[in-house]
Design a protein that fits this description.
single chain; 498 residues; Uridine Diphospho-n-acetylenolpyruvylglucosamine Reductase, domain 2; Uridine Diphospho-n-acetylenolpyruvylglucosamine Reductase, domain 3; Alpha-Beta Plaits; 4 domains; 8-stranded antiparallel sheet; 5-stranded antiparallel sheet; 18 helices; 19 strands; 34% helix; 19% strand; globular; FAD-binding protein; Oxid_FAD_bind_N; oxidoreductase; FAD
Amino acid sequence: MTAIAMPAPDKDVIARRQEILRALQAIVPGEGVIHDEREMRAYETDALTAYRQLPLIVVLPQTVDQVSRVLKYCYDNNVKVVPRGAGTSLSGGALPLADGVLLSMMKFNQVLDVDFANRAAVVQPGVTNLGITRAVEHEGFYYAPDPSSQIACSIGGNIAENSGGVHCLKYGLTTNNVLGLEMVLINGEVVRLGGKHLDSEGYDLLALMTGSEGLLGVVTEVTVRILQKPETARALLIGFPTSEDGGRCVADIIGAGIIPGGMEMMDKLAIHAAEDFVHAGYPRDVEALLIVELDGPEGEVDLLIGRVEEIARTNQASHLRVSESEEERMTFWAGRKAAFPAVGRISPDYLCMDGTIPRRELPRVLARMRELSVKHGLAVANVFHAGDGNLHPLILYDANKPGELDAAEAFGADILKLCVEVGGVLTGEHGVGIEKRDLMSEMFTEEDLKQQQRVKCAFDEKHLLNPGKVFPVLNSCAELGKMHVHKGKLPFPDIPRF
């Protein structure tokens, strides 16, 4: 059970479990409904494994009609629903509810259409991120967003969290690469947003859905942009005597007008863990390691490599190596891609944080994190998307030692508060979920949060979709709809009211 407060389970719904089970089995027959406690254990947590909760029932639909009927039944019978993809979320966004149906979309796993002429692919939400690239690479195309979990994470989950990856600096996050969606609302209505065309008229509901963390609807089909692979791609491995030197180098590269395909940074603890795990040839005698990838026409890449080398030396680089083959470039990235599991080999447990800061604040934030590490008595390994300031501190702890989980959470909260303090935000790509939910007031005012909840009410007035996530205090839609009267006067009295 999670220590984080969640909505109190509805005893009436739990008492009706057998009735709900029979109704869902009629909609999704065969093995599409899981209700045995042991079998449901696989769904009790996402990648934020410190928190666990068995769902009421698990449903695995295979058709849009089944999704629509399941949601319509839950809407009519006031049953909560938690949508779930591959379960790689690091913010507890897919944490089940004791009185809620967990709706797994992983049987929606087909690539439906590839349109090279329009540079688009239509896929179901259970297709893995890497699966899209695998489906188009034979023609020299790929899907640009590439989170470290791309071998496992689903494109539907990427949309829920607006995932990024090592190449998001130049090619954008999920929201910059999704062209259209088919989704089902909580009342069972099926709607389409966008398509293969560049832009849609009216409100940008497509961007609203991307990053909505399962609070607004359930995605059943996705149209994504695919890109041609660049003519040339080469990577530089640059080591620095201090993390501050590395941080300044990042800022100087961007300040020089150079936008790398990817720019990642690791500190000494992460470097050693990755090198021990992958043997990528990382230098061990540096405090910070920067991977800078440049892509495009061969002549342009050669020119930019020279400019980056010059900037690196100006910032006291003590190690500099340029990839001379595609195999070597991929080896450089192999260590970074495996950094999270690599750190898992040196600590019984870790919390992977996700905050974003202005690039210029990198040296200051890294220095402050070292102080916080001493304050909380826990080590931290830093791995982050340096180009866009998206930090992923890995806080090492042992859940079997009393108080260490609490200390890790307090450490993580201090890091996220620091991100906001220096002009950044609470999350870059992992989402809010339950992990950052109670810190939302650090970044937003009460009125800001209420305005966000009004959007939630427009899609889900009963608060049945993924409740307990994102909002620290969830107001009812009726409360949010009330008119504030101050000293007997309505606001803006000159506006006609109906």
